Amino acid sequence: MSDGDVKVTESEECIAAKIEQMERHYMVGRENEIGFFLQQLAMSGQSKRVLNIYGTGGVGKSYLLDEFRGLAANAKAVFLLMDSRGFSHTPNDFCTELLRMLGYPAEKLGRIAEPQTLLELCHGVLREKADNTKLVLALDTFEEMNDMENWLREVFLPRLHSDILIVVAGRFPLQGLWLSSPAWRHWIHRMPIGDLDFFSVKQYLDRSGISEEPMIRQIWMKTRGHPLTLSLIVSTTMVQNVQDLAIADGIEVFEHVVRTWLTEVPNDELRELVETAAVLRHFNQELLSCVLDQAVTTDLFQWLAGLSFVRRVDRGWILHDLMRDAIGHELRIRQPEHYNRLQQRCIMYYYNKMTRSTQRKEIAWEGVEWHYYIGDHVVRNFCYQKLSPYRMEPLNSSNWTEAERYLENRRTNSQEVCIPLLNPDTGELFEYAISPEESSQMVKHIHLQELHELEPGIVKLMRDQQGSICGLTAIIPIHAGTLDYLCARPLSSAYFQSLPENELRELREAEGHIAGYFVKTIDVADFGDVTIRTTAGLTFISLLISSDYVVASPPDLPFLNDFHLSLGCEQTGDIVHYDYDANTPAPYYVLDTRGAKLQRYLNKMVESFGLSEHSEGRTNDLPMLSARENEVARLLVQGYMNQEIAASLYVSEITVKKHLSAIYRKLGIKNRTQLVNRLLNKAQ
Q1: Which has the closest alpha carbon to 421: 609, 197, 217?
Q2: For FRET with 358, which of 87, 141, 330, 566 sits at 20 to 30 Å CA-CA?
Q3: Residues 1-14, buried b or exposed e (16+ Cβ, 10 A)?
Q4: HSE-up of residue 91 (Cα within 13 Å, Cβ side)
Q5: In the chain, which stretches have pLDDT less than 50?
Q6: Three-state DSSP class for 410?
Q7: What CA–CA distance (Å, rounded) separates 236 from 257?
Q8: The dihedral of CA 469, 206, 228, 248: what is its sign?
Q9: pLDDT (0 to 100) of residue 500
C-alpha cells in the first residue's frame, strides 16, 4: 500500500488496513456519493472532472474524503489530499507541497527559485504520474483558499492531465466564475453533503452497539442526523457506559458543534445577525429588519445567506436546525428579555399580515409561520421538527389494497410508543406514552368503502421516501351531502346532534360549498418517528388555517389533548362520546373562526404573550403627532399599505405619503419598519 511514492512497512500496512476497515464499517448514508466516485474513478477522460463536495461544518466532508482515499487505494490509484490548512496560500508553496507528496527529491526542490519553473515541474510530474496510474487530486477546506482560488481555476487546474480526477471539498459550493464559464459548468458535478436520515442514523448506532429503540429515537431527536453531533454523543455515551442519554447528552457536545460553525462569524455585528436568525424559523431581509428594528443592508444579508449552516428554501432562508436550537437556547438564557422582544416582534409581524388579509388562501404560509411563534413546546415538538418529503395521495383503486393492509396492521400490530419531547424554555425532557390499545383507536372507526362512497378524496394516504404507506387521514368536509352522515356515525354524531337547528342549517351548505371539516383521524404508523409526526401535525395546522370551522375528536390521550389546546381549540364541556371504548369519555375540540371570530382567536393567542394592546390595534397615540397622523400610524401598524390607508381614511395616496413623511420627521426615524417597532415598543 502506498500514498504517492511514500513506502510503508508491512506492520504499518496491517494496522492501516484494520483502521480503514473499521472506518468503512461506520460509513453510512453516503452510498450515492461513493457510487458516483467509483464510477468516475473507473473512467478515463471524465465527463465530470471536478467533484464538488460541500456542506455545513461537521457534516462529514473530510470523513468522506478519507473514504475516497481508501477506495482509490483499493483501485490502485494515487490519492493526493491537499488541505488548505497545511500550507501557505501561495502558488509556490502549493506546488512545493504537491511535489513533496509526489516524492520529488527535497534537495532538488530547494534549488528551484523561479515560480514558473516550479509550476512547469509540478505539471510535468503530475502528467508523468497520470500516464502510468489513475490519479486523484483532492483539495480540502477549499473555503480558506482565498486568493488562491482564482489561480487554481485560471492557471493550475486547466493544464492538468485530462484523466486526473479533481475533488474540491468545502463548506460552500463552487460558484461565481466557476459557473459563469460553460466549460467549468460542464465539468463540475455538485455533491452536497447533508445530514443523515433516520435509517442511516439507526444503522450507525447499531454498528456502535446501541440497539435499544427508545435510545435510538432519543439520539435521532437530539442530533437531527448531524454526523459530528451523532459521533460525539455516541462517544460520550460509550465512555460513560450509561443508557440514560439525559446524563450522557453532553451539553459540551452541542457547544463544540456551535463553536465549529461560528468560526465563520468574524465579529459582534454579524454574530447579532446570526443570533436573530436563530430566533426565526424562516427569515428574509424584510423580517430580519423588522425584528431587529433596524435596516439590514443587502451586503450584510448576502453575507448571512452565504454561511454554510444557512440554506435557501422556497420561502426564504433557514439556519441548520441544530444551530438554530443551540444559539436560540443560549440567547434565551443569556438575554431573556431581548429574546422575548425578538419573538414578540415575530408574532406581530405575522399577526399583522394575517389580520389585514381577507382571503384564507392568502395567509396559508403566514399562518404556518405564526403558529410556530405562537405555539408552545408541544406544538413545536409535534409540528416543527425534522420535516421529510412525505407524499399525500387520495385513496383510489390502485392503492386500495395497500390502504386495507395498513389499517389491518395498525389494528392488530400496534406497538407501545414513547414520545420524548424537550421543553426549550426549561430544558426539561418529558415523555408521552401510548399503549398499543390506545394507538389502534386512531383507526378503529375508519371504513374505507363507507368513506369513499360518502365522498371520494376524504381518505388520503401518506407515503414515505421508500414508497411505503406510513399514515392515513380521513377529513370529512361539512356540507349538505355529509351532514346526515356526521349526525349518525360514531365519533361525530354526539357533537353534531347537540347543535341547535339554526346552526345545523348554517352548516348544511350546498354541495361544492364547504362549511368546515370534521377530522375523523390523522393517523401515522409510528408516532415515535419525528418526521412522520411532524407531517401529521402540520396537516392539522394547515387545515386550521385553510378552514374557518374545524371539529376533531381524537382518542383521549394526554399528548393529543395538549396539542389541540395549545393550538387554541376550544374543548367542549358536556358534549363527549364513548365510541373508542365504553368507559373513557372522549371530548371534542372545536376551532370556529368564522367572520369576526377569526380576529378574536388571533387576539386570544397573542394575549398569552402579553401583547393584548397590540392585538386590539392600539398604538398609544403619540402627543407629538396630529390626530390624522395617529390614525395613519395605527393603520400602518395593522399592516395596511399606503393605498389601503388612503381608502380607509377617504384621502388620496399622496396625502398618506405626506402624513408618513411628517411622522418620520417628528419621530426622528427613516422608514415604516422603524415606525412599526417604535409604536409597538411604546404600547408595551
Answers
A1: 217
A2: 566
A3: eebbeeeeeeeeee
A4: 19
A5: 1-8, 239-249, 616-619, 684
A6: helix
A7: 14
A8: positive
A9: 92
Digit-coded pLDDT (tens) for 117-159: 989 999 999 999 888 889 999 999 888 887 788 899 899 998 8
- Integer Cα distance of 350 and 307 in angstroms: 26
The distance between the two most distant Cα atoms of the chain, rounded to a whole number of Å, is 101
Which residue is associated with the grid cell 422603524? Answer: 674
Burial (CB < 10 A; 0-12, 13-18, 19+), residue 246, is exposed
C-alpha 178/C-alpha 184 separation (Å) is 6
Other C-beta atoms lying within 10 Å of the C-beta of residue 126: 22
Provide long-range contacts, Cβ within 8 A and 24+ apart, for 151-154. Answer: 151/91, 153/177, 153/178, 153/184
Cα–Cα distance, 252 to 436 (Å, whole number): 37
Which pairs count as long-range contacts for 311-316, CB under 8 Å and 24+ apart, including other chains? 313/282, 315/282, 315/365, 316/282, 316/283, 316/284, 316/287
Report the Cα–Cα distance between both ends of the chain, in Å, rounded.
Answer: 71
Q: Which residue has the cell 480540502?
A: 140
pLDDT at 612: 58
Q: From start to end of 95-187, where are the E strands? A: 135-140, 165-170
The distance from CA 9 to its chain's CA centroid, rounded to whole angstroms, is 48
Question: Hey, what amino acid is at 129?
Answer: K
Q: Edge-to-edge strand order for the sheet containing 78-83?
A: 78-83, 135-140, 165-170, 50-54, 188-192
Helix (H, G, I), strand (E, B) or coil at 230: helix
Q: pLDDT at position 45, please? A: 61
CA distance 130 to 520: 66
Nearest to 417 by CA among 441, 448, 446: 441
Q: What is the pLDDT of residue 237?
A: 57
Cell reading at 628: 390624522
User: Is 586 within 8 Å of 554 (Cβ atoms)?
Assistant: yes
How far apart are the C-alpha atoms of 174 and 166, rounded to whole Å? 13
Please state, rounded to an integer, the average pLDDT across all residues of the chain: 82
For residues 602 and 354, is the Cβ–Cβ distance under 8 A? yes
Cell, residue 406:
395498513
Amino acid at 656: V
Instruction: Estimate to the nearest angstrom the gap between the alpha carbon of 476 and the chain centroid.
Output: 30
Burial tier of 169 (Cβ tally within 10 Å: 0-12, 13-18, 19+): buried
Here the cell at position 211 is 440497539
- For cell 511535489, the residue is 99
C-alpha cell at 188: 463540475
Instruction: Count other Cβ atoms within 10 Å, centred on residue 368.
Output: 20
Backbone angles phi, psi at 513, to 5 degrees: -115, 115
pTM of the model as a whole: 0.64
